[in-house]
Amino acid sequence: MSKKEITIEKLASIPTVMLIKANKDKDKIGFYWNKTKRNEFYVLNPETLEYKQITDGHLPKAIRAGFVWLKDNIHIAYTRDKDGNENHDIYLFNTETKESTQITDTPEAQEYPITISPDGKNLLFSSTRQGQLNLFILNLETKEVQQLTANDKPTWGNAVWGKNGWIYYDFNDTHNIKNSDVWGIKEDGSEIKMIFRISEESNDTLADINEEGTLLAISSDHSGVKQAGILNILTNKIKWLGEGQFEEDAVEFSKDGEKLVVLRNKDAEIIPVIHFLATGGYTRLDFKGLVYNTTFCLDDKYLIYIRTDTKTPMVFARYNLQKEEEEIIIPPQTDLTAEDFYDVEYVKYPTFDEQIIPATLCKPKLEPGKKYPALVNVHGGPTGQYFRMFDMFSQIFSHEGFVILNPNIRGSTGYGKEFMEMNLNDWGGGDAKDVIWAKKYLETLDYVDPERIGVFGGSYGGYMTFIQLTKYADAGWKTGSAWIGISHLKTMFDKSKPHFKYFLTLHMGPYEQNKDLWDDRSAMTHIEKITAPIQMIHGVNDPRCPIEESRQFRDKLVEMGWKESTEGENTFEYVEFTDEGHGAFSDIAMRIRTFKLFIDFFKRRL
Questions:
Q1: Among 180, 290, 196, residue whose Cα is nearest residue 237
Q2: Are 412 and 379 in contact (CB under 8 A)?
Q3: HSE on the CB side for 413, CA within 13 Å?
Q4: How are the residues of the chain apportioned to helix, strand and coil, as percentages rounded to the nearest 5?
Q5: Burial of 16 (0-12, 13-18, 19+ CB in 10 A)
Q6: What is the pLDDT of residues 22-56, one digit of tens each?
Q7: 382 preceded by a cis bond (ω within 30 of 0)
């Protein structure tokens, strides 16, 4: 296939499978898929590998919440919002009759289904209907809602419902971001207690509960590296799994309780590890790249998952644990092959304080002696991570003639507790310098034009773009694009929901105590230093990084005499999407229009 046929539309239209979840009997696998150009719900028979589309336009364009199977194996509880505002209401969907029924109605609140009670009569969900994000129980017959927790700090993360009448969940009762614990509350709310904490400096989290309700699958970073373990609820004893050498997250017990699947994160790759709890042994599924959304099925003889690597778009597959054989359920949905994609290299570069920063690097087909424009793409989070996977951003930009570097700067996950905590109370500090040193690394590559290097990113990556072009304007960026970014930490805080306020306070400390820090690490404080042209793209309904963050930056530029234009000095480009919130990457039409804006901007400006 010739290069000219590999268009933005073709690459951006490769569909993705998301949110795989088995029902209680493990004989139906539900998943979201955007093969039709928008998200729909599908059901897979894991034995025959036949699947069918169930919904038809019922799901939101952008998926920000999952679904839960009811015990009847017919209904799912799922969510809808309005144009990406994430104020989800919960609906029941009958997978046989295709009937959808709204069961909560809170237009100003975010609600997320979590799990079903062991008797199947009640739905556990989290909601901001009373302010802070807390746990609630909804009786599926009467639709009566009972508030279960009433914490002033958010009750987010995972939760499971035991047969003993207790609900176990992740919670941090401190203002220390280095801490989270496993708590329990009786289903009638009559008793609450901490179940598991190693220390106030450890993140101890919950993954699953076994069928008998006696064991919890947990993870903890108490040793400096996240490790999976089994907590016996009856004895309160812990059995740690693995050697503690790699970042590992517990995921799911097998139905018989004899196995636990763990995801191992090593050198920007994730593979499943199956632990055999009785013998202490384990087996690895040694795929390259990224494997996730794992679930057991068919009497625990098989594992269902999604996998991808640098030149393989998303594959939905079943693995026979006895025969150690993989069967493809859904192959990559494109006529492009590995030869049509550019390889994504895993590289490392030194930064200002002698730390080594891992990154992925993708480049176009190089012509001898030619110098190419380059971009540093900063991930969201900040506790995100770039993987050695099929990266649509890297493929599209490299096919359009750009070199693209995706750094896992300090604050990223996957490299241990110490590295992840390096940017606490330091957003826009050491992490920003890591981004500048990413630019320096690109300048050492003989095929990169050092005068044509830009920066961009979404969410926290958008924040970092704003900061680079203002506070660090002397780094010499040619241009940048802030997608759904943050231009001032305090104004974002003021317009955020309580759980997002808590998140920012954990990372940067209370504003009243750290006002000078918050202000110094905000682009609006340094906006008069900007010299490079900037693009801003934002959804009007964004609840995480409110639209005002881009609007106030734009308005200040205008006040400074800058013009909205596609060329020239002291110019900016600004786009708002009225039907979008915090990005809408799973909606293919929205994906294409955003990529086109990026590419058009950087082709003109670089």
A1: 196
A2: yes
A3: 19
A4: 20, 35, 45
A5: buried
A6: 998 899 999 999 999 999 999 999 999 999 999 99
A7: yes
Q: Measuring CA to CA, which residue among 222, 225, 295 is closest to residue 260?
A: 295
* Cβ–Cβ < 8 Å for 182, 136: no
Q: For the purposes of burial, counting CB atoms within 10 Å of the CB of 192, is it exposed (0-12), middle (13-18) or buried (19 or more)?
A: middle
| Amino acid of residue 33 | W
Q: Number of helices (H) and strands (E), helices first, in the chain?
A: 10, 37
User: Which of 345, 298, 338 lies closest to 322 in space, CA to CA?
Assistant: 298
Sequence-ordered list of residues with C-beta below 8 angstroms from that of 457, at least 6 positions apart, any chain: 377, 378, 379, 380, 464, 465, 482, 483, 485
Question: E strands within 479-590?
Answer: 479-483, 534-539, 563-564, 571-577
Handedness of CA 466, 470, 471, 472 (dihedral sign): positive
Neighbours of 226 (CB within 10 A): 25
Which candidate, 240, 220, 224, places its Cα nearest to that of 232? 240
* Triad 277, 280, 286: Cα angle to 5°: 95
Decide: 477 and 530 in contact? Cβ < 8 Å: no
Q: Rounded to an integer, what distance in angstroms lies between the CA atom of residue 206 and that of residue 511?
A: 30
By the 10 Å C-beta count (0-12 exposed, 13-18 middle, 19+ buried), 30 is classed as: buried
- Tokens coding 456: 């961009």
Q: With beta carbons less than 8 A apart as the criterion, state whether 283 and 273 touch.
A: yes
Convert 269-309 into a string of H (helix), E (strand) and C (coil): EEEEEEEECCCCCEEECCCCCEEEEEEEECCCCEEEEEEEE
Q: How would you classify the pairing of strands 403-407 and 448-458? A: unpaired
Q: How far is CA 429 from CA 75, 346, 454, 520, 529, in A?
A: 48, 25, 19, 10, 17
Q: 1 falls in which pLDDT band (50, 70, 90)?
A: very low
Question: In whole angstroms, what separates CA 117 from the centre of its chain?
Answer: 27
51-53 β-sheet, strand order: 17-22, 29-33, 40-44, 51-53
What proportion of the chain, given as a percentage, has pLDDT over 70? 99
- In terms of C-beta distances under 8 Å and separation of at least 24 residues, what long-range contacts does 148-156 make, across chains too? 148/124, 148/185, 148/187, 148/189, 149/185, 149/192, 153/502, 154/498, 154/499, 154/502, 154/503, 155/126, 156/126, 156/499
> pLDDT tens across 477-504, in order?
999 999 999 999 999 999 999 999 999 9
| Environment class of 443 (CB within 10 Å of its CB; exposed 0-12, middle 13-18, buried 19+) | middle
Burial of residue 548, with CB atoms counted within 10 A of its CB: 0-12 exposed, 13-18 middle, 19 or more buried: middle
| CATH architecture type of domain 20-302 | 6 Propeller (2.120)
Is the Cβ–Cβ distance between 449 and 371 less than 8 Å? yes
Whether domain 342-605 has CATH 3.30.360.10: no
pLDDT tens column, 368-401: 999 999 999 999 999 999 999 999 999 999 999 9
Which residues make up the CATH 2.120.10.30 domain(s) of the chain?
20-302
Residue with tokens 């109370």: 425
Considering the chain, tell me which residue range(s) the CATH 3.40.50.1820 domain(s) occupy: 342-605
0.85 exceeded by pTM: yes
